[in-house]
């Protein structure tokens, strides 16, 4: 019996979406369900998980308040710093650079990813350490400068490590920008700053929000940069999770922290996206 067109479309859709959905369910949804189950359990006497149903782990979240505060403060600041550096670079690549130079410059942005983040972070450890920039400043009479093992060192490492991830989404949005809109704005007598805030920025907001969301989400789970450039004095939630799962072997408490972090991330991103789209819609209405 031949299948009707609607049934064929559903089968084709299932064939295309099914493998990806199964992959996400097995490797994303099921592990997260396990983490939720662990969060309501207890630590076994020898470490690990012991079946129970208690809210004790969530009530004890204050014990890791420092990690939460550092993460929820430094991660958005790091993402904002990346944005401030990345937007002018992406704007130049997409709008100002010639087509002949653009490919080379975009390649240079991606080049740092060809080297391990661990190696690049170790390089910053040397530059910020006593034999690096502080040693150089002593020749100019500036002594006792401490750069390593500080929040500033962590932020510097964040900007360096995650800058390409912020540049590329913004570049893609700006590269799709219709240049006729910029020319029309100039012909109508608008100043460059008015054109930027009235046309360029609103149309690039999807790329901005994609970059901010991508960098922020990765930073919330960052472990390596705070560990190496913070010297154990600047803790992120990622550092707390490593300690709880691998050293203290307190899986329920670590799971409770992970579940809380996911909830915070979802709420923050939903609010940020809602604000961004409202701003973009308002700007576009104002141009009409």
UniProtKB/TrEMBL annotation:
Residues 68-272 form the ABC transmembrane type-1 domain. The keyword Transport applies. It is found in: Cell membrane. One of its GO terms (biological process) is transmembrane transport. Its main location: membrane. One of its GO terms (cellular component) is plasma membrane. Keywords: Cell membrane, Membrane, Transmembrane, Transmembrane helix, Transport. PROSITE patterns: ABC_TM1. InterPro entries: MetI-like, MetI-like_sf. It is a multi-pass membrane protein. The keyword Cell membrane applies. The chain crosses the membrane at residues 12-40, 67-91, 103-127, 147-172, 193-219, 253-277. Belongs to the binding-protein-dependent transport system permease family. CysTW subfamily. This is ABC transporter permease subunit. It comes from Rhizobium lusitanum. The lineage of its organism: Bacteria, Pseudomonadati, Pseudomonadota, Alphaproteobacteria, Hyphomicrobiales.
């Amino acid at each position: 019996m031949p299948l009707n067109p609607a049934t064929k479309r559903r089968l084709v859709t299932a064939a295309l979406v099914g493998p990806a959905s199964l992959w996400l369910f097995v490797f994303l949804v099921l592990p997260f369900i396990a983490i939720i189950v662990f969060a309501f359990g207890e630590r076994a006497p020898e470490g690990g998980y012991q079946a129970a149903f208690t809210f004790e782990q969530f009530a004890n979240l204050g014990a890791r308040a420092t990690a939460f505060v550092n993460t929820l403060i430094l991660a958005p600041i790091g993402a904002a710093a990346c944005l401030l550096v990345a937007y002018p670079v992406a704007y130049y690549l997409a709008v100002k650079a010639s087509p002949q130079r653009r490919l080379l410059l975009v390649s240079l942005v991606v080049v740092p990813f060809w080297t391990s983040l661990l190696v690049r972070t170790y390089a910053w450890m040397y530059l910020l350490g006593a034999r690096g920039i502080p040693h150089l400043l002593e020749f100019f009479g500036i002594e006792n400068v401490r750069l390593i093992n500080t929040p500033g060192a962590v932020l510097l490492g964040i900007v360096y490590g995650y800058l390409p991830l912020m540049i590329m989404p913004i570049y893609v949005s700006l590269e799709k920008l219709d240049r006729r809109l910029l020319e029309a704005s100039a012909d109508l007598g608008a100043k460059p700053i008015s054109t930027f805030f009235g046309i360029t920025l609103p149309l690039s907001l999807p790329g901005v929000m994609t970059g901010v969301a991508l960098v922020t989400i990765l930073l919330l789970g960052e472990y390596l940069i705070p560990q190496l450039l913070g010297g154990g004095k600047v803790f992120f939630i990622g550092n707390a999770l490593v300690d709880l799962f691998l050293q203290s072997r307190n899986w329920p408490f670590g799971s409770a922290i992970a579940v809380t972090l996911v909830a915070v991330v979802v709420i923050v991103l939903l609010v940020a996206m809602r604000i961004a789209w409202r701003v973009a819609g308002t700007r576009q209405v104002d141009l009409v």
